Amino acid sequence: MERQSILASFGIPISPGSRPLNRNAQRRDTTGSLAGRSSTRYSVTALYSMAAEQDIEVEDDLAKAQKRLRDLKGRISAQSKKNFVLERDVRYLDSRIALLIANRMALDEKQEVESHFEESDQQVFAFPDHRKMNQYGNLFFLLQTEPRHIANLCRLVSLTEIDTLLQTVMFTLYGNQYESREEHLLLTMFQSVLSAQFETTNDFNSLLRANTPVSRMMTTYTRRGPGQGYLKAVLSERINSLIECKDLNLEINPLKVYEQMVKKIEEDNGSLPPELPRAVTPDVAAANADVQAIIAPRIKMLIDIANSFITTIIQSIEQVPYGIRWICKQIKSLTKRKYPDATEFMICTLIGGFFFLRFVNPAIVTPQTYMLVDGNPGKHPIRTLTLIAKMIQNLANKPSYSKEEFMMLLNPFIESNKQRINKFLLELCEVGDFYESLEMDQYVALSKKDLMLQITLNEIYNTHALLLQHLEVLAPSDKNHLRIILEEIGTAPAQVPRKENKIVELPLFSRWETPIQDIATALMSDNNVTQNDILYMETKSIFVQIIRSIPRVANKQNIDLAAVAEMAATAKDATLVRKGIKVKEMLRELEEAHVINRRDGYKLMTEEVAQELVHLGNLREKVNEEIKSLETVYKTICDHNNYLRSQLDSYKAYLLNVRQQDAKGGPGASVVKLGGKEKSQKIKVLGPYKFTHTNLEKDGIIVETSVPENRRQNIFFNITSPVPGTFIIALHYKGRDAPILEMDLKLDDLLEKQQDNILSLDLEYVQLNVSKLLQLLNKTFSKRKA
């Protein structure tokens, strides 16, 4: 197969052919590439180096660490997809729950809402129709390896359709988030999408800013594992140190500061002096000398905090995921092409619009949804984080103060940081391209016999339907491979119910590309590599594998290749024997071809094997460091999954309450249908369940308390549910029968508070966290009901 055909399949520029390998003229470096070689493209040498690194027959520390890393990356990719689906469900339910609370939802809408709680089977099944399975396998291989089709489709779908398509593209088709081939194909798709966006947008100021399928794609990309890992590593500590100061009020809006000031004066004195009216205009508030005196030190503190955030972000440039930096690079390149006269400042506003507006700032404003903090921050830290995010956004963009004139007070921060933030944004773009490595990855993919894709039935059917809907634009020619496959498959099946939406395994293959049976031979024909070069590299690779399998040899300072080959050939392990006999024969062939010399102890190959082993030792350390980093990412993603599930549990409990309230029956009874007949059912009172003040405080449910510390061990709460959706919380003191106070709570009231972003519930003596209280109620009472 010609390398040009592989590159052309996904629209990548073709680099010049590589020079022939000449062993006598040049020496290899430790990575196996030729020293001084002008092309940075993966060489055949690199292929064998990769084989030595990832030999599945070796069981040394590196191999075990690599297996752990692969498993961990797989779990992160799978969990990221589950979170994306849950986030969609929560977003949908957020938009519908207000109607439920207002009791303005029709029966069919309630059933639609309920369908979002159904769990699909997570087991992997075979596709029910073998012929269709092969057709879909061919279709999805084509879509994966020729990203232009998906790029075109993403521009054609509506905003209501994009999320479902993005789920398939980001988390299934290119779902292996740490595998270079899939990541690079996905970025190639982004290049096509961005190019078209620049081509069709006439107004520079609206580029990448409107809420379009393209902007949604860019935001979704940042939510994959590498992006989440970066946010956790870089922002978490900085945000947590800020929210610990829960009483630090840095409000600088003069009107709000004035309102807070007069409220405090009224509370302290019982009334307001005549010169301080309760309601004033923003201009009057801004002119008030006391308000100005309150705001002045807050401005300085906000600037100091924002500077610390900016410094942290700038210093983290090497931690920014490659894909995000590469997208920044494309934005810069496309801007220069479309707008040759664009200033450096204009280019940086577009890069900053992606990096800050769609990636960093959402995590600063709502750190709890990104699992950067434990629990919900208090109202003052939330406001401070919002102001910090606005300052950073104004720094990255041309600031507009038309809606919030008070933000002009922070202009010194903009002026002092503009140059260094622009320098950072331009340096983000300084990453290499991946086209050469993608070429090698495509060779490897075409040589694989077991390329599989795990995908749900609805993902298959939805993608199929969207492709058919836009087929005339995507594939106008009768000879287009996409059209040929789709016409053979026929009509797209309807979406199946959520419970029946099984995960199936599709074998991916191409009917138009000839599978590569011998990758080395294919590479030889395309790269002017000789048979002796291939033999040399394969011999070196096998020696590395043998030495990794024999620890006592690996620890030796001086390596005797002939002795190593003999040791393997006479070992008790059958695999080692096979490799030892093979490598002895290969040494003999190389010596006959005058490539190596036994008299100098195979000096050149010995040096290269030693260098490769040093590289692998360093690689083991890097793998272990990456495992440690990704374990934190995986924990964050799992915590986010638990948070999303608790949201769904809250909505599920409310829906149960709605159903039972709608049922016919007297007080204390509900009506259920059994076999089509109605039957009255007595509702059971649940509880009371006891919780101590200490435990609730420890779990973050009590966020503020006025109970003296020496009495807290004597305080406990009894929670009862007399009817579904209603709870009575009673605060007790040990030794007393009667409660100190009781509060009657409705589930929909709590949900409404959460909907309105009211974070705490006032119980006179204690303040309870609304979200965590909802989690506690769901966990306690749904378990008892079951």
TrEMBL record:
InterPro entries named in the record: RasGAP_C, RasGAP_CS, RasGAP_dom, Rho_GTPase_activation_prot
**What does UniProt give as GO cellular component?**
cell cortex
Q: Specify where the region named Disordered lies, as residue ranges.
A: 1-36
User: Which Gene Ontology molecular function entries are recorded, alphabetically?
Assistant: GTPase activator activity
Highest rank taxon of the organism: Eukaryota
Output the PROSITE patterns linked to this UniProt entry.
Answer: RAS_GTPASE_ACTIV_1 (PS00509), RAS_GTPASE_ACTIV_2 (PS50018)
Listed SUPFAM superfamilies: GTPase activation domain, GAP, RGC domain-like
Limits of the Ras-GAP domain? 181-397
**GO biological process per UniProt:** negative regulation of Ras protein signal transduction
Q: What is this protein called?
A: Ira2p
* Native organism: Rhizophagus irregularis (strain DAOM 197198w)
